[in-house]
Structures are given as structure tokens and as C-alpha cells.
Write a structure and sequence with these properties.
globular; two-stranded antiparallel ribbon; alpha/beta
Length: 217
């Protein structure tokens, strides 16, 4: 079974998360918004009493070294709710800036808030992307039933039925795709459980970590 994962928003908790991923040789894609990163770290919002802080632009390359970066729009708007040309700018400009920063192709896209419409899907295609990730839960199959620009993940990393869906996907021999935000890991127990989860997947002979874009090669 192919296993893929992605993480949104480019925040400081990604540093600890990446330490775990590297420990177990797990691949991952990080979905970033270039405009959210000031030269240095910048406090953002609170999540369940925990401060969420965006990574500084001066540390992005070193933090994400060796990992795949994907487009999450420039400013994280509801793309379907703004004029088409404004949405195009959000998509194309963020892709350009991320490619300039990381010196790697930016082929994937994660919809801000998971929302989109047909016009936004067409923009992704026109601007050179390979897929668009939603937040609708499904057991991914290839080719994607609704096309690559409505590619639904299996579940979030903290879903109550994560293990059940993992086993179901493995039985079907398909794809298991989870996602999340590292700021949702707010207790030591959650971090320990996540470490054990990644370790277990990496040790499973029936599982192979792959890049999301490779699914559409």
C-alpha cells in the first residue's frame, strides 16, 4: 500500500514533526502560503490555548530541507468566493514565490479551507498543478474518481477511526492519505502517539511512503 501525508500552514510545530518524520524516513508534503511568512517568526492565532506561530521566511529552506513543498495559495482565502482573476493571482503568485524560495517544482495544491469550485479547479490545471487536495474524507483510489483536482484524502492524522481506515486501505491494496496541522498536536501524549504511528507505518512491510505527485505520474 502506498502511504502519503501532507501538513498545512507552515508553523513552528512543523520543526518537531519533521524530526519524527526524518527519524523514520517518512516522506511528506508541506502546503505553504508565502505571504504568511514574515522575515522572522510571527505569532498567528491560538488553538485550544496554544499559541500558533508562523515560521520565519529566513528559516523555511532549512526547516523543510528534503521535503516536498506544495501550493496553499498566497494568503489562504476561500478561492471560490473571490473574483477569478484574483484567485488566479493567489495561485500563480504563491507558486512562483515558493519555487523561488525552495528551488524545486511546486506541482501540488491544497485548497484553503478545503473549498473550491469548477473555476478554481480549472485555474489549478492552467497554472501547472498536478492535483488539488480537498478536506473531504474518502478512500483514495487511482485514478481519482472526481479527477486529480478533487483528490480527497482518507482522513486527518487525529481521526478517531484512523487505524480502522488504515487497515481498510491496506486490505484494498490502494492508497492511504492523511493530513493535518502540526499545531493540533498539543499534548506530549499526542506527540508520543504520532511518533508511534509513523514508526509503525515505516516498519510495516506492506506500506511504502511515496510523494503525492508520484501518484499521478
Amino acid at each position: 500500500m502506498k502511504v502519503v501525508q501532507c501538513w498545512d500552514d507552515g508553523i513552528t510545530a512543523d520543526i518537531r514533526l519533521i524530526e519524527i518524520l526524518r527519524k523514520y524516513n517518512a516522506t511528506a508534503t508541506f502546503n505553504l502560503n508565502a505571504a504568511r511568512h514574515s522575515p522572522q517568526r510571527k505569532p498567528g492565532w491560538e488553538y485550544k490555548g496554544t499559541q500558533v506561530t508562523a515560521l520565519g521566511g529566513d528559516e523555511l529552506v532549512s526547516v523543510y530541507e528534503g521535503f516536498t513543498i506544495a501550493n496553499h495559495s498566497l494568503n489562504h482565502p476561500h478561492l471560490e468566493a473571490i473574483p477569478v482573476e484574483e484567485a488566479r493571482y493567489e495561485i500563480s503568485e504563491n507558486r512562483k514565490q515558493l519555487q523561488d524560495i525552495f528551488q524545486q517544482p511546486i506541482d501540488g495544491f491544497a485548497y484553503p479551507y478545503g473549498t473550491y469550485n469548477d473555476a478554481v479547479k480549472e485555474l489549478l490545471k492552467e497554472e501547472g498543478h498536478v492535483y488539488g487536495r480537498t478536506v473531504k474524507n474518502a478512500l483514495p483510489t487511482l485514478p481519482a474518481p472526481e479527477g486529480p483536482f478533487a483528490f480527497h484524502p482518507t482522513c486527518k492524522f487525529n481521526a478517531e477511526d484512523f487505524q480502522e481506515k488504515f487497515e481498510q486501505a491496506k486490505t484494498q491494496g490502494g492508497v492511504f492519505y492523511f493530513w493535518g496541522h502540526s499545531y493540533e498536536l498539543i499534548t506530549e501524549k499526542m506527540w508520543e502517539d504520532f511518533d508511534a504511528c509513523i514508526a509503525g507505518i515505516s516498519a510495516d512491510p506492506d506500506c511504502e511512503w511515496v510523494e503525492i505527485c508520484d501518484l499521478f505520474a
